[in-house]
Amino acid sequence: MDYVGWVVLARGDSELRRAPAVAAFAGAVGGERVFGTWRELRIADTGAGDADVLALARATGAPALAVYVVDGLCAVGEGATPGGTAFDLVFGEERVAEEYAAALPDDYRRADAVAAVTAWAAEADLAAVPDAVDRALARGGLDDLYRAVGLTGRAGPH
């Protein structure tokens, strides 16, 4: 993770970047990758947005993730489903706790996040490997998480 700012993963087509739920992040979409029917949008942080991954999941009718990359080694975010389930994600938990303690959710437990990501993937018609999800959160990154939940077929930037 060399990028700093929002990374949003949601199901959608090329119009996803113009959706009101994406606009709520209040930054310009600077990059986009396609994974089959899924899109990853990189959104510049303006500090003015009202990021709401639950609204994004409801708007797209599919599970979504919104992760704020704090620095190249860690990120904090949320996942959500259209039915209203939301959960916290922390990549590089040890670094977040040491360097960005205020960003670490008070009740965060990686084991709970692994279970939530596994359920999220099932609702998204993906197949998560819990051990791989755990490794991705502990010391990996978003691409590791994507592989852990079976997101394949990356078509590259669009």
TrEMBL record:
Protein name in the entry: Uncharacterized protein
**Annotated source species:** Streptodolium elevatio
The source's superkingdom equals Bacteria
